[in-house]
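Final report, Chapter 2: Outcomes

The project's central promise was a pipeline that accepts a single protein chain and returns its three-dimensional structure in a standardized token representation, suitable for archiving and comparison. That pipeline is now operational. To close this chapter, we reproduce one record exactly as it appears in the project archive, with the input sequence first and the structure output second.
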Amino acid sequence: MLRFRLGQAWKSEAAHADGPHDAFRLQLAGVDLLEDASEEPLAEIVPTLVNAAWGLAHQHEVLAQVSLPRAGLELCFARHGHDTVELVLLDMGRPARLLRPPIRLELGELVSATTACVQAMTADLSAHQPAILRTAPWVTVSKRIRALEHGQLSDWHPSAGAWAWEQFPSASTGLGFRLRDDIGRLAAFRRGTTAPLAALLCPGEIVASGGKQLMGLPFLWLFEASRRGADERWEAPGLGQVDARSVYHLGLLFALAVKTANSRLAHNHWLVALTEQCTAGLAHFRSVSDAEAHPVGHAPKRPANHRPVAKAGKLRRLNFAKRWEHESAAAGEGSVLLLGKQGPIASSPFCAQGFDREGRTLYRHVGTHGVAVNSQGQVLVANAHRLAFYEGTEASARWFRSHDGRPLGHALDGSPGIFLEATRTQGLLAHSPVTGRELWRLEPGRTLTGYPLVTPKRLYLTTDSGAFFSLSAAAGDWVFRLRSPLPFAHAPVLVGKRLYCVLTEGERTALFSAEAQSGALKWTLESRLSRPTEVSWHGGVSYLAGERDGAAWLLAVDARGRLLWERLLPSLHRPRHTGFLKSHVWVMDDHGAVAGLTKTGHASWLLGAAHEGAHASLRPLAPRGLLLLPAADTLRAVDPETGRLLAQMTLPSAPVAAQADAKLDVYVLDEQSHLTAYRVSAQLAVL
């Protein structure tokens, strides 16, 4: 039988400003489980208890928590089924410990005990301190206690499926851990929740080299162990000798693991406290090692030439400085932003406008039947009867041609000596920039979407009908043609003399490699992925992300088409883009969250979405090794090695296109037809 009992001595004592302070007891089958809770603010604890029972019973909550601040005790509840609740009693003082093994209770019994406790407390307050009953927390209590008395238990909906993580002991630390989350504790956490500690109490083991292990709650053990002095070594039951440095490293790995499962846990103040304790401990080791390397009175020897070595500082913070803003006529669906030799070029299906780097307008061309512009500043303008071709900032057209009235597509870059256009029928059309003569045309049949790739001598076109064309750029002659039963998902990627292509239909995805010159197939790898991203390549390894069974996955394939590894990315939604930068592969989902992994597939960092409901359709930019993330109405700068957020800026409107040059000038075209230039500069650096 479960009972909550309240002390009665407060009735004969002087009234406190914040209500009665007395003992709070939890009795199970007549045994008192909370012996130290003797001076608790009952007017705060009882409403918290009601909210916990009400959330578990009627709000589909998985977790609940009641804190006893004076005793430093925590009552953590977790719903395990329709009518079962697990109770974990913790003492978070020194040392942090588990008071008793987890207790299984009936949810109806918890509701009955809470109702009886509140009724008794309400009667006592009515007689001795009735003013408390008129405060907002107790007004809410009176409403929710009626729901607990007469309402039916809500159905149990676990927040996520089972999740597990294993961190193997490393050679440097000798410690690892295992986590098992069967009821979705980690996924249930959200900002503003009243059960932050309960979300971290996943069962598991702390594992040491040699097969030694300590079963229990890994977070609780790490939280207490990280409080010890940095120079301590101690005997841990079941693990043997443990030093503080190993614990600090393991604590940071634990934080990374749980944030990978749910990025919102980055705001959990218990996890933040663990991270800060481990970071401060490792900083002590760095300061000690520096002092030992250069003891007082023994200055380090300088090189013979006595010239200091100039080293760039480690960036800690950047800022976006707005340079200029202009209203552009190029906006709407199909708008693109190009980087020309003189500055940005904003283009829509019917208008092209060029600017210099200071924001001055260089040219503007409008066509009723379309405008196509490339990054060299060559513009093809069409109306109902003629085509006109403009070169750069020249006011007069180079040539005019009669026109059949078809709408223009968009121009392509990469082939000198011809003006290449991707038509709206997903074909390719080449004009002579000198005379305007049509050089050649390719119109694939049964095609709704085409993906062109342009090189100086060759053109490659993949289509959603499964066709692959290779043409010579000068004459348009076919070099080879491939046919696939699956549609192509993206443009091919050219790496050296190899082509890498992605095909997909439903949950069937294939990645293949072929010779760029002859089209000879080298290898094919099939995988059960849907909605794959474009393939990225580095160091002989291809990386491909996609969705499988509603979860995000990342695959790594070697140069011979063998699967090296595949990793689940539980913290991401549907993958949108992937890339490789500074020895890390990154994956961005459609909400703007980004995960970074090492070349071996180990999770390195995670950056959540800018805000709830964010949508990211633009590909991230990578100028000078910096990762820029345009999403929704936010622009963020991220260090690709550590995932550290270096800068974040709110944009006045959602971007439709973005570009960045080598000088770290960022140009953003938003849906309000504004083109804005920003300069990225260092705000804080450690020398």
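Archive annotation: Helices lie at 42-58, 107-128, 136-150, 185-188, 218-225, 244-261, 269-293.
This record, like all others produced under the grant, will remain available to the consortium after the project formally closes.
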